[in-house]
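Tokens in:
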């Protein structure tokens, strides 16, 4: 039980552990049920950082720092997936060539544009959220992003035929994983934001379904890059919904 949790913590974050634990392939593959809880942890850490930055620098600077922290807590892993996915999907090439482009470590123009667009939207939306609600929105952003990874693993087949980093998760996935992700997302959203939170969770799932359909059409499934891209994109949803909800109720 503990080793899959530690494997998830080591794989999904840059949080230093007192002792790095050696985890085998099976333990890494079975770590996916812990991803939503890693999201709660990451979101809580960023929320605390944002609270301190708000008091020292105001909402704009604090918002930018918090978005950087959200992207950085995974060591840029998900941002890299977003850039690679954008380079491949917007290349107008056939499926096999798209997969080759996504595997290339070099970043192209579309990858840069995707990173800038998502970063700018997150910053703008977070700054527009009332200060009293920012901490819960940040926690929900990180939670929704990590839950999207688990759900994408079960909505789609693995797109690559020659193995890859995600093959270890494919071979060990269970139907309980997506059920846990939905329960934690729905329960966390309700506790954090009430009815607005439930609306946010529904919007996040709907956005993921659209993204998953796009992945299926472009490459026939998911890869590690699309998991990261989905995480970065779905993180946008709670901030966007919070802004729309606040504007509709004031």
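Residues out:
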């Amino acid at each position: 039980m503990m080793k899959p949790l530690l494997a998830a913590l080591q794989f999904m974050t840059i949080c230093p552990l007192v002792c790095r634990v050696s985890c085998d392939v099976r333990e890494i593959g079975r770590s996916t049920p812990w991803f939503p809880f890693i999201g709660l942890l990451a979101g809580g850490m960023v929320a605390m950082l944002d609270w301190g930055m708000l008091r020292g620098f105001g909402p704009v600077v604090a918002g930018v720092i918090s978005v950087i922290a959200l992207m950085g807590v995974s060591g840029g892993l998900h941002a890299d997936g977003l850039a690679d996915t954008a380079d491949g999907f917007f290349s107008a090439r056939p499926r096999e060539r798209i997969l080759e482009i996504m595997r290339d470590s070099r970043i192209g123009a579309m990858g840069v544009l995707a990173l800038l667009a998502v970063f700018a939207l997150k910053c703008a939306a977070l700054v527009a959220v009332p200060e009293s609600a920012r901490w819960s929105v940040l926690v929900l952003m990180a939670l929704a992003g990590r839950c999207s990874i688990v759900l994408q693993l079960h909505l789609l087949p693995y797109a690559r035929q020659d193995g890859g980093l995600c093959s270890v998760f494919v071979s060990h996935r269970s139907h309980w994983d997506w059920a846990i992700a939905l329960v934690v997302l729905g329960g966390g959203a309700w506790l954090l934001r009430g009815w607005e939170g439930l609306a946010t969770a529904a919007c996040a799932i709907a956005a993921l379904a659209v993204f998953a359909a796009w992945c299926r059409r472009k490459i026939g499934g998911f890869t590690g890059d699309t998991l990261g891209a989905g995480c970065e994109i779905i993180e946008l949803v709670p901030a966007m919904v919070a802004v729309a909800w606040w504007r509709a109720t004031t």
